[in-house]
Amino acid sequence: MTMIFNGEKLAKQKALKLKSKASVYRAKGIQAKIAAIFFKEDAASALYTSLKKQTAEQLGIGYQAKAFSFATPIKEIQDYLDILNQDSTITGIIIQKPWTKKWLEAVPNGDFAKWWFGLVSHIATKKTHGINKDVDGLAPATLEAIKRGTWMQEQMVLPATARAVLSILKDYRANVDQDFSYLTENVLIIGQSDLLGKPLYWHIKNMMQTGSTVPGEFGEACRISVADAHTHNVVSGKKCEVKLVGKKGFDEIIEQKGSLSDFRVIVSATGQKNLIDGSIIAAHSLLIDVGEPQGDIDLPSCLNKADFITPVPNGVGPMTVISLMANALDLLKSVL
Ligand SMILES: NC(=O)c1ccc[n+]([C@@H]2O[C@H](COP(=O)([O-])OP(=O)(O)OC[C@H]3O[C@@H](n4cnc5c(N)ncnc54)[C@H](OP(=O)(O)O)[C@@H]3O)[C@@H](O)[C@H]2O)c1
């Protein structure tokens, strides 16, 4: 029997806690406020921005949004980011990443990666007015800290989508299988973007290597020692690993193995509709679908084979929105 995750339900439960956390901060005179930038040519970005604004306001978190155009000179956007960095009322900055394809339609022969780097590297991670403003873990410095495994000590946050995936796995452990830990399973992450694939990979890899000594939300779900992990691996008879692949790596696995059956946990973030179907997954797998607006996973064909699937919509999406709000409140810790 496959359990279908309900993202709206878990997000609502989390919202209650976050609302009260935001009010505790307000009582201490600290108001969380996110400033968002989005690009008007990308309709999906405008929609996600309005959904995030709505959720923020329900929780008592400020949210202001400004639209730019792909045609806006990058210097103008960077100058605006600098103003936000210096504004003491802004506690977090997010740039809603547009769809690369849309950007390239507007800027033929442009270098999307260079343009995006030029923007996200302008989000202040050094404390300005006592706070790191990289609320969605977009800045290159944040990814470096995640890679080093020091992001928590440096008071940084994971990208909201990566946090959403970890929260979903934690919820599976809490409510379905208390023996489950992604540290003792083979994990495959498909899609190697800076927003999800890379940070999630580095975080899980570091946790697997250290045996999770981090307390709280990110460690609680998998508080095991390296020795436990080793014992588990010996018992299960398989080498436990996390693997990150793009298109080439994915095709190689399919060519060499014929399926993804070596992996119990599969996180897919490619935007390729039905990339994964029931014929290539292992029995009892946990499938996390990050694809939008259409899922990467062909849900009907995986039913009754997988143990757990996040649907699209109502899976990772609502959890990403609420994770951004959790990030916004986490960043306030440093100003207390
Ligand atoms: N639910 C949410 O909250 C949320 C948040 C962010 C993004 N998303 C969604 O996640 C998806 C990816 O977004 P992104 O920003 O990460 O995109 P991206 O930067 O364009 O990355 C896409 C990744 O998918 C890989 N890929 C493409 N085609 C593939 C194939 N046929 N087989 C295997 N891998 C393939 C690419 O591989 P190469 O590296 O080899 O090119 C690349 O690593 C989109 O659908 C987006 O809408 C959802």
Brief account:
The chain has 13 helices and 9 strands. It is of the alpha/beta class and 336 residues long. It has 2 domains: 105 residues, Rossmann fold, CATH 3.40.50.10860; 156 residues, Rossmann fold (3-Layer(aba) Sandwich), CATH 3.40.50.
Secondary structure layout plus pairing:
Blueprint: E1 3-4, H1 7-27, E2 33-39, H2 43-59, E3 62-68, H3 74-86, E4 92-95, H4 100-106, H5 112-120, H6 140-148, H7 160-175, E5 187-190, H8 197-210, H9 217-220, H10 226-236, E6 242-245, H11 247-257, E7 265-268, E8 286-289, H12 299-302, E9 308-309, H13 316-331
Parallel strand pairs: 1-9, 2-3, 2-4, 5-6, 5-7, 7-8, 8-9
Helix pairs in contact: 1-13, 2-13, 6-8, 7-13
Explain how this protein is built.
The chain has 336 residues and is an alpha/beta fold. It folds into two domains: 29-133, Rossmann fold (3-Layer(aba) Sandwich); 161-316, NAD(P)-binding Rossmann-like Domain (Rossmann fold). It is built from 13 helices and nine strands. Strands 1-9-8-7-5-6 form a six-stranded parallel sheet. The chain has a three-stranded parallel sheet with strand order 3-2-4, with helices on both faces. The relative contact order is 0.15. Mean pLDDT is 91; it is low at 213-217 and 219-237. The structure holds NADP nicotinamide-adenine-dinucleotide phosphate. NADP nicotinamide-adenine-dinucleotide phosphate is lined by residues 97, 100, 161, 190-193, 195-196, 246-248, 250, 269-272, 275, 290-292, 316-317, 320.
